[in-house]
Amino acid sequence: MIDKHLTLIKSSDLVLLQLEIPLETASHIIDICKENNITTVLNPAPAIKLSKGLIDKVDYITPNETEYKVIFDCEYNDGLKKYPNKLIVTKGEDGIDYFDGNEIINIKAHKVQVVDTTGAGDSFNAGLSVALMNKVSLKEAISFGNKVASISVGKLGAQSSMPYKEDLD
Q: CA–CA separation, 15 vs 60, rounded Å?
């Protein structure tokens, strides 16, 4: 199926993946993207143990705190420092952490009335990816993803809670 759509994949600037598809499929797509200099964002949900080789191939990996513990065999801060500007950990009401090469940065969570967290990670990753495509800094991209996710948790459902662009203004 993937090979049938190589032209489409190779014409992409960014590919966003999650692990609800088989790992073998995701790995194949990541290899194609790496060979063709296509930015990849991996939302490792549901979490499974991942090889260092796979993690090294993606441009961004975005586990939540629970997923981090499944994927990485090291202390939290050590893991962040091992993957500067690549490992972005979402922490719900505690915001989002990443290491910028100099320090661990925490993007504060927006204070919102939480109705349903279903789809919050998907919303964050979609927002992050859209912002990256708009060539903003990583910090700005994470902040935008954070805003998208904070709006999504204010409504019921996964797809139905994802905001439209006009909801972000």
A: 11
Which member of 78, 94, 122, 167 is catalytic? 122
Quick one: what percent of the chain has pLDDT higher than 70?
92
- Any residues with CB less than 8 A from the CB of 12 and at least 6 apart, and which? 33, 38
Domain ranges of the chain: 3-168
**Is domain 3-168 in CATH 3.40.630.30, yes or no?**
no
Q: pLDDT tens digit string along 76-91?
A: 999 999 999 999 999 9
Distance CA 128, CA 2 (A): 24
Q: What is the pTM assigned to this prediction? A: 0.92
Mark whether 116 is an active-site residue.
no
